[in-house]
Fold this sequence. Notes:
Low-confidence stretches: none
Oligomer: single chain
Order of helices and strands: EEEHEEHEHHHEHEHEEHEHEEHEH
Strand content: 25-35%
Distance between the termini: 37 Å
CATH topology of the largest domain: Rossmann fold
Strand order of the largest sheet: 6-7-8-3-9-10
CATH architecture of the largest domain: 3-Layer(aba) Sandwich
Number of helices: 11
CATH class of the largest domain: Alpha Beta
Structural class: alpha/beta
Helix content: 25-40%
CATH superfamily of the largest domain: P-loop containing nucleotide triphosphate hydrolases
Amino acid sequence: xxxxxxxxxxxxxxxxxxxxxxxxxxxxxxxxxxxxxxxxxxxxxxxxxxxxxxxxxxxxxxxxxxxxxxxxxxxxxxxxxxxxxxxxxxxxxxxxxxxxxxxxxxxxxxxxxxxxxxxxxxxxxxxxxxxxxxxxxxxxxxxxxxxxxxxxxxxxxxxxxxxxxxxxxxxxxxxxxxxxxxxxxxxxxxxxxxxxxxxxxxxxxxxxxxxxxxxxxxxxxxxxxxxxxxxxxxxxxxxxxxxxxxxxxxxxxxxxxxxxxxxxxxxxxxxxxxxxxxxxxxxxxxxxxxxxxxxxxxxxxxx
Length: 303
């Protein structure tokens, strides 16, 4: 039975429909990715699932509780990692966890008993008494994740949890999320990092303009929605190569700036046509989730 379900979810602001008939199900113990470009409706969907804003249509159930009517009860069993860290700069690391636990009605001695394990989980065991201003960006993000676990939630909502982090910090976060999944937690993840979604998510729902445009596992989406091989062709002669060869050697091709993307099911002929061509460089690689995402949502910049 789904831990979180939304059926025919709708939300409109003035004349703009932000979420348009969206269906979503989170199965227990899985990581479900909600992907889409800026303005696709992801944050509005999260707010409706949490009962922070009311939908204009559709039904939401979180942990068998109807939302928004019983959203407060549902939120007692949810952990939330927002896009931006909102830690209290006047408190120490441990005091931030203590203050946050009180919002759930937990007793101080129960919260203090949980803090050492949470700091160990976040790699901050030696920083319990540190002020927030002394922490690096990665430390703050790990503390925000630890804070979201103070109530031992069944479901964790993560809104772009690794934005702005260096590769080392991202990998530490990923390791922590895998540990949570192994403990049976259910995760809803929004991210703009396609490699993150590909590594962590069991299921993906891709939305744009408030509608679901693709659904499935990362492997399924890559296998069914994109050609298996990609050649990225760079250089001043890429336009000439495109005119001479692309229609014949590429199943599909796109020009993005100075780069020609050649998508193909038979790459050998295209690779042969690129060898020893002066003024051109190329990268031959397997297709990935980012290729799927760009095919579905386009390459134009969204604000």
